[in-house]
Write a structure and sequence with these properties.
Elements: E1 8-16, H1 22-32, E2 38-55, E3 64-84, E4 87-95, E5 100-105, E6 110-122
Antiparallel strand pairs: 1-6, 2-3, 2-5, 2-6, 3-4, 4-5
């Protein structure tokens, strides 16, 4: 086990409008604000495109499965994860009318109506 403690820096409230891409917008904010390390503590909204990937085996190397949705309304239930050295590692949960899906968030997730994301920067 490894761990560290740190102090909190700036807090960012990111609002995404229809057509905005989630991970791409987070990357843009990270670059613009020169965020090195941070945590994503909340994300909710709606999507009409989404790409998640998940592992499908317990062996090594893991086999991965990519789940893609195109032009389908999805609830964005949650995104959580970290930004380390300016690179996001995020997992998300989305749902349709029947099921919830979770996995590693990939580029290509597009906001349908609105998405709201809270990012807390960590001090060095």
């Amino acid at each position: 086990m490894e761990y560290f403690s740190t102090d909190v820096g700036r807090i960012f409230l990111l609002r995404l409008d229809p057509g905005d891409y989630v991970l791409e917008s987070i990357n843009e904010l990270v670059s613009k604000e020169k965020i090195k390390d941070a945590v994503i503590i909340s994300a909710i909204g709606t999507l009409d495109r989404c790409v998640l990937h998940m592992v499908t085996t317990t062996g090594y190397p893991p086999k991965e499965f990519f789940k893609r949705w195109e032009d389908k309304p999805l609830e964005l239930v949650s995104i959580m994860g970290i930004i380390a050295d300016g690179k996001p590692h995020l997992h998300g949960v989305v749902s349709d009318q029947e099921y919830a899906y979770a996995g590693h968030l990939e580029e290509g997730c597009r906001t349908l109506y609105l998405a709201e994301i809270v990012i807390i920067e960590l001090k060095d």
